[in-house]
Design brief:
Length: about 250
């Protein structure tokens, strides 16, 4: 199956001697949910920006399917509180959309009828769903979500990941997520990539949960992931690929 995005031998440096990403290979195929996990400073957001073409590469290459439509939910969106902006206006940035299209997007993401609400009056969970609605307006083949549940409580996190699974089922869009929500992210992923400047290990959630590199990276936090892992997979294909050729081991860091 043709990849939507494929990175080969990708390295990124922000100046200085040590690269932020070192010889990373990555791909995402149509319809799959891939989650990138790793400690703070591991290069997760840098990988997303590199895949989207937002940062210069030190080496390697990124290939995207021709005409690939991408919906992007960034890690942070700053809304000037002094500037009034309704949800409806926000959904028409940067491209104007019709009322029916905006209403359908809000309905799909579980926040119907918010068009007249001020963006600054939304709860954290509502705002994340509005961001997702805006990302869906372009009928994306690939949804990219960078730490989409920051600031949400545990029920909100679980509900948001359930929504992502529903959106994938309804639209067929592939989903690339960056996340630190270890105890729920496994349930919403087809494949997990553990990153710490390089790819430490990758595979199905069940396989990665048991991988030594994953357990070294997250320590005690990793113990609950298998108990919560309830995703349906063809277990004949449960395998993990570990990579230790480049960079330091995936040590647990804070």
């Amino acid at each position: 199956m043709t990849a939507l995005i494929r990175a080969t031998d990708l390295s990124v440096s922000h100046g200085g001697d040590l690269p932020v990403l070192n010889h990373v290979d990555f791909l995402i195929r149509p319809g799959e949910i891939v989650t990138v996990v790793g400690p703070n400073g591991s290069g997760k957001s840098t990988l997303v920006r590199a895949l989207l073409g937002h940062v210069a590469l030190a080496s390697g290459r990124v290939e995207r399917a021709p005409g690939l439509r991408i919906g992007y939910v960034p890690q942070r969106v700053h809304i000037e509180r002094a500037m009034p902006m309704t949800v409806r206006r926000f959904l028409s940035l940067p491209r104007r959309v019709g009322d029916a299209q905006a209403a359908a997007a809000l309905e799909r993401t579980g926040v119907p009828g918010l068009e007249a609400r001020q963006i600054t009056a939304l709860s954290g969970g509502q705002f994340q769903r509005v961001l997702l609605a805006r990302a869906l307006l372009g009928d994306p083949q690939l949804l990219v979500l960078d730490e989409p549940t920051q600031g949400l409580d545990q029920p909100g996190i679980v509900a948001f990941y359930k929504l992502i699974e529903e959106v994938r089922a309804e639209t067929g869009a592939a989903v690339l997520m960056v996340s630190h929500d270890l105890l729920v992210v496994m349930r919403a992923s087809d494949r997990v990539v553990c990153l710490n400047g390089h790819v430490c290990c990758e595979g199905t959630p069940q396989a990665v949960s048991a991988a030594p590199a994953y357990r070294a990276m997250f320590g005690a936090e990793s113990q609950g992931t298998l108990a919560l892992y309830q995703h349906h997979h063809d277990h004949d294909h449960d395998h993990v690929a570990e990579g230790h050729r480049h960079g330091p081991a995936c040590a647990h860091t804070h």
